[in-house]
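Quick entry between incubations.
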Amino acid sequence: MILLWLIVILLAGGLFAWIVGRKDSLSARWISLIAVTLDLVLSLYLWARDYRQADFLQHTKWLEELDWKWIPRFGVHFHLALDGLSLLLLLLTFVLGIVSVLASWKEIREGVGFFHFNLLWVLAGIVGVFLAVDLFLFYFAWELMLVPMYFLIAIWGHEHRVYAAVKFFLFTQLSSLLMLVAILALYVLHFQATGVYTFEYADLIGTPLGSGTALLLMLGFFVAFAVKLPMVPLHTWLPDAHTEAPTAGSVILAGLLLKTGAYGLLRFVVPLFPGASREFAPVAMALGAAGIVYGALLAFGQTDLKRLVAYTSVSHLGFVLVGIFAWNELALQGAVMAMLCHGLSTGALFVLVGALQERTHTRDTDRLGGLWAAIPRLSGFGLFFALASMGLPGLGDFVGEFLVLQGTYRGHLLITTVAAVGILASTFYGLRLVQHAFHGPNDHGWKIPDLVPRELVALVPMIALLVWLGLYPQPVFNVFRPALTHLQQVVSQTNVVGRR
Amino acid sequence: MNMHPADLFVLLPLVIVAATSILVMVGIAIRRSHLLALLLTLAGLTAAFASLWFAVPLTPRQVTPLVIVDRFALFYIALNLSACFVVAVLAYSYLEKQKEQREELYVLLLTATLGSGVLVVSNHFASFFLGLEILSVSLYALIAYLRARPLPLEAGAKYLVLAASSAAFLLFGMALLYAEFGTMTFARIRSTGTATAGSAGVIVATGLVLLITGFGFKLGVVPFHLWTPDVYEGAPAPITAFVATISKGSMFALLLRYFYGSEAHHVRGIYLVFSIIAIASMFGGNLLALLQNNVKRILAYSSIAHLGYLLAAFQAGGSLAAEAVTFYLVAYFITTLGAFGVITMLSNGEREADSLEDYRGLFWRRPGLALIFTAMLLSLAGIPLTAGFLGKFYILTAGVSTQLWTLILILVVSSVVGLFYYLRLVVVLYDNAPAFGPAREPMAPYAPVADRALLALLTILLIWLGTFPAGLLKLVQAATSRLI
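Done. Structure below.
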């Protein structure tokens, strides 16, 4: 039941914020803040509850589950389930959710109620994606994220918001319709093989498929997740959407929506189609490595701060893609770690850029510079998160990317080399960001207020989390390792069955 | 000919609708009152709906050789009656803004609904043609109802000419089929329908193609779609809703009954004809809609595309396809009624609210209406939480389970093209910077409570069916189970 509550609180909070927000925008902000915090507390409770149990490490099934009949005609179940992987992604969701609400406290002035309605409903969709184990429900939640996100960009975005929003919507919609067709094909093939209509994840695993069919279906899923991830060359919606979205929108896009793509690959693509994924892995990893370098180079060339941060996402998620398709213990752990840390560090960078824009009304690096003297706190934070993002040892991102490289190194030397070059390239854009925005003489004579307590409340915990994940990530590993081990077992078992 | 009392009972819904139209007409002769005409109409429709309860237990029942009343027919009659109810309510406030004689519209609405009812119960060419003509003749007058304006007149005339010529094609097709089989009932064709070889095959195929021409015209699918945008634009908004829903829906129900019953779509060549029509409609509708700036025309082209989707499902064949089509039609009815309901409410006595500019920033002026319109557009686009999504899901399932990969992929690609113009409308609704001059005055500030409640109800229904469809699915399954 607690899983249902996680979603219901967000949905109801959104409606409530909207209704109240028509008259009183401050209450709308508080309502959303409380709703997300409540969810964070609930998911922390889930962690604490299972942490105390001795057998937490041995958990191979779900930590928490909810299974209701939904549409009997199609064998659709309202089936939510939580394992360590989903739990951590949920925690990330709620942390970034709180950050988004705080970041838009002053930025959003029009239609405040409707804004928070959309914000909370995007979060609800994301929670649904991380929890759904019925493919129909998964698709439902997957699409549910889309419309509110579209509104967030199209209504509260910057200059070219409509173009960016429509592009985002069309890219994701086309790819996810292909996924829907693949889901349906899998569903029908499973029915033909077993005589049971089901969208159940656990049942569909191991559906006997011809290798050609499996490859096609795998690609149907893969495209949807690769667009969200985003994988080069399907990334072109991302710089536009991230740049034009309001701060909260950018934080959620970069921190969470991209993770849904990675999560989909990890949870669905490889386990459902192990053979096809193994065949396809070299291509996916090559594209991932290409994305790492390409994203870093383009980030280096940007003068718009938001665009710069957006391209770094392309680069970082390349590591995740490489890690997932390497499919060994180290690489997978690295990929999950990279997902979590990228969410925190990039989310924070977007908050900072948003805070800068709020104060200076520009994101152009040529018009900034020398801000350190004027706003030391904001600049210091900027330096920290830029360092985190370029993978400084001791901070979370380093752990993830290092593990991915280590895991990939064994089998794929060339890809590892290219990816390692990407880490090098990330220093360029990271330092460039700091140099152009904060260092140098204050030529433009900026006199602007520094970070206020509200922004500190959002950012300081993210620093703490990144340091924690960088120095002592073991507790987090303990949470997601059983889930990954389970996924690996599933894949190797189906492989064995397939070979017979 | 002997009529059993049960025959009367199963026909009761149609009898009541027919009686109501006479009653309203007599009522007008006694005392002209707009409200009275509306209330009589609504009461008649409600009574007809209630009489379905008597009819259901007696189904299926063949009444005379002309009509069959089964659950399938009753389901569509129920759908048509409900849609007509909505149209009548919308028409009331719309007509209040006009200077025309108002009351006769309801008589025509009722006769048109009667015609659509006859269509869905017919299983004989004679009743088919009768129903079609009752519907069409009523529609000529309805479309051109606002005589003082040029556009409705033009639309009415265009519809008249094209409908009459398509009826001629239809008759010729029926004649050819009659010449071949010697019977006019649908069922008898089934027994010989599959065996078509040699010279007889040519006559049958020609007859079927001519028949498809007649169907295609009423459905407004490419290449028989030319009237659709003009009629949608010209007709008064509530009447457009009627044409888009009841007229097209009943025709599709008949298409299912005729082709699935006679298995004529298995005749060589006919399958290909339907595939081409479906593909052309999906692409044609969605691509042409991109070029439009008039909201009613956009919806017209969108409806062409949606009929294309329905034909794609129809091609799948089997009970799943019949279910998919029926469910999709329900969703499509709700959506179309809602969308045209919004247009109706914004229109005034001088012109229809069909320019994109009428909708710019509507959300900031009238959030309720804008949200309803958004929900309808998202349903047309097939986004989850709305019934439109489940409809599309159903169609895709039907297609995938019979491996219609070409049609499915074309459906997917063309529906993404369709997203462009739905999003374009949505963007306009939420545009918060009316940069070009001062914000346009809301066209019709007058919004009756009944209309608003009705539209809100449609929206709730749309979302309810999009999230908890199990109940409707059961009904749809029961309605279509005996069709094949």
